[in-house]
Amino acid sequence: MQNSKKRTRNTLNLLFVVPILLASGCGSVATPSLDDYVSELEYHEGFTVLDLGDIHESVIANLDVDFEYLTNVIYSRAIVANDMAHKEDYAPDLIIMNGDTFMDANKLVVKRFFEFIDSLDIPFAYNYGNHDYEGQYSHGYIDRIVQGCKNSVLCNPEDDVYGNSNYVVNIGHDGDIIWQIYLMDSNSYYKLRYDVVHDDQIEWYRKQVEYANGITSSEQAKDFDMIPSLMFMHIPLREYQYAWTEIAGDTLYGAKDGSVWYMMDSGVGSGYKDSDLFSVIQDYRSTQAVISNHDHTHNCDFLYSGDGDFPVHLIYANKSSINIYYDPDTMGGMFFTLNEDKTFTTERIRVDYNGNASVITDEMLASGEIIW
Predict the structure, then answer these.
(1) Is the dihedral of CA 283, 186, 151, 359 positive or negative?
(2) Are 361 and 295 in contact (CB under 8 A)?
(3) Most buried residue, 5, 51, 65, 288, by CB count within 10 Å?
(4) Which are the contacts of 185, defined by CB distance < 8 A and separation ≥ 6?
């Protein structure tokens, strides 16, 4: 059921807590403005975002072991460089928990998890997955705990837009937006199938892109130097399946024309129907990649255009724990480096529970052999 009446949020004043934060922007009003969905972080060359997905903390998970593991994932680039003495230099600038952080958890598990993640003093964005509400707590409990974290950039103003984690992180410098990160709530279930991003969410995304870029239509976007963005959502779009079929012929691994895939699970767990989100992304030419988790053993980057002429990276990022099912060869984290020239680069790092870490190259994915 849609949570159309959301709990009023307190403004997060992160400016005096996190030095790189420009402003919170997480206001809450009865009829929110587009600004009320926006947090701001300071950009620097090499700004890095880490995706953590499908952690699945629960009442039976070993939290202490998982927290040690997640710490190793967060600092995995330092492990790879054999430079843990300077691990802070390798830390991401933003951590995104891209859904299913919890499943069958209780209040204590949620509270302990966010105490851990907040103690790292790294800004973090929380995104809902299909399992996060399946715990021993009320519907708004996670939101209330996240609101109390000094390093959270979650914005969830009281509104009538479907879902609870539709918001934007503007990454900029001297008043200019250099990059944007869009968080989209891909929702949970429709009857016995996965839900999709709803039409009002797509309209919200369209308005946010227009507002940030100072345009009023997708026609203007064709000739406009659009602010680049990435979009994170837990459940993948149906275009992931179309890309896998059309580019890869449903094969398990390979590479072709800028795409690479390692699909070690059957099928794509997308929503129950097509949505217009992919076509709107193509129309506005801002979002260069959509990053999902959800299907724990898929790792891919499909450069897909569909029927349009604006190719979009459809990416499955790594699963970030051993909870529920997982592929030991690929679990870890995926880093996204945002460049000032409006390009981005990625790095997948496999981390095991013994603290070992190694880069997973595209060649490894394409060959189907993750070499250790």
Answers:
(1) negative
(2) no
(3) 51
(4) 127, 128, 162, 163, 164, 165, 166, 197, 201, 233
306-352 pLDDT, tens digit per residue, is: 999 999 999 999 999 999 999 999 999 999 999 999 999 999 999 99
Give pLDDT tens digits for 256-271. 999 999 999 778 999 9
Which residues sit opposite 230 in a β-bridge? 181, 289
* C-alpha torsion sign, points 186, 187, 188, 191: negative
Tokens of 250: 């449903």
The amino acid present at 114, given as its one-letter code, is: F
Give CA–CA dist 243/80, Å, rounded.
32
